[in-house]
Amino acid sequence: MNLKRLTRYLALALLSGAVAPVPAATAAESLPDSEPLMRALADEITRSMGIQMEDLEKPYFIQFTVADTITYRLSAAFGDITSSDRDRSRDFQCQVRVGSYELDNTNFSGDGGGFGMFSRGGGGGRRASLPLDEDYSALRQAIWWAADNNYKNAVETLTKKRAYMKDKNIADRPNDFSKASVVEHVEKTATLDFDRAEWENKLRKISAQFNKHQQFQDSEAQLLVAASNDYVVNTEGTRLRTPDGGALLIVKAEMQAEDGMKISDGLSYFAHSPQGLPAVEEVLSDIDEMAGCMAKVAAAPLLEQYTGPVLFDHIAAAQVFRTLMAEGVAGRPDPVGTQRRRMTGGGSLEKKLGQRILPRSFQVYDDPTVSEVGDQDLIGHYRYDDEGVLAERVNLVVDGKLEQMVMSRVPTKKLSGSNGHARRASGRGTAQAAIGCLFVKDDDGVPADELKAKLIEAAQDAGLEFGLRVAAVKAAGIGSSRSDIMGMFMRMQRRGGQQGVGDPIYAYKVYVDDGREELVRGCEFGEIKIRDLKHILAAGNTAEVYNYVGLGFGGATPATSIVAPAILAEELELSKIEQEHDKRPILSSPISR
Fold it and tell me: How far apart are CA 388 and CA 169, in angstroms?
């Protein structure tokens, strides 16, 4: 589900603290079937095409988008509700492009203009909050004000871009925009069926489960539920309204080992509606299992150093593919006036089109139209992207070779034309190419027991006493603890700005002699690059689902789902994390007494 507003709201709440509480609400709420809003958008976009400053160009393209949303955010800790908020909003985005499809005011960061498409005035968009009442005149007033300001910034940026290009030798610059089919599609309005009081009681029970485990120093349960009508109106003739919504339950906890090292983990559950979330009893059982695993990690020895084969299973393999491939397979241009962006996982893979990046038996595709796998809903699912383009399946890797990339309407040097993968991240004014639901498959996949045997065999061939199995790594997501986020920034500093694959949460020595496993902790990966994926020794024949919403510098990133099997990497390096830890609390917690 394309939870643009949902994930943005949670990110802001995590970072800033919250919104004002309102009285509890129950039962179903329907968002308005707002004829005045659609009419105001259509009428004002037509009028805005005539806007023109003296001796400067008119817009050639304008797009308005609105997320008309109801959002609930509930939090609880140790059996008590800490916040219960409801937010009702109409988040408006305006994009004005001046010039032509070949050259316009976007994709420019020269002359101190910032970061490519997201520089001020670069077509990225002017945000505004529209009135909630069905007042046609008030809606048009707010839309007009945003469009007028965005146009002024756009013409200023285009003037600077042209001046910059006149003095530079710029080769092979792609067009700034591509055309897309007109979409006229209006669906039934969204409805949110949510019993707030019932879920407050459920969160009390879920958060109180940590009272049974005295070693926890901090824990929290959060529920985010949202429903929205998403509007896209542009000057090419697109008139689109689609319903959206979902529910995200996050449970996170933290403890300390005897040496002071922070041990953290979390659980997350996503469903397309609150009714699809698991029963409380299932969540309580998962908390108990997580608590037991974390306690074992806290008591585990440190891993000083390791170089050898690594088996990534459970969600760890999907986490690796997200880190190394998600940004790279997104077709994004080089902004005029800057060097290519350094991306997580080593940068864009466009130069590798037609080359092998995975073993020949691997197939990778992205298909946002898939809403579930088995009994798990996919958070990356959507039907129309943020530019109003119908989502398509894109076969990215065929028989190990990179054949295609996910694309927005913004061309790259080698590719042009959208395949429905323009997605807006929180804090960014314009949509850019991004994955939705990434599927990884090995045609030669093997069962889990055979994969473990191959790990032991590879370790034995390397003359090692043990191989290493990793079941989960840390990721800077909306469910991360504050210590995890701080750890991410520290890791990026050590790696020259590259985030890389996160530190293992659950890592096990797998001994060659008898196959027994021993937990270890306190280690981090050396540099892992996309080229390491070419040397995967084997993969599993079943896939794990990993629903992820990341936290970047600008807020929450687009929600994505990665569905991938376990993989056995030929050789990776891990070493002890060199870090000084805070001392454990002097007094025991009140719960332990």
Answer: 35
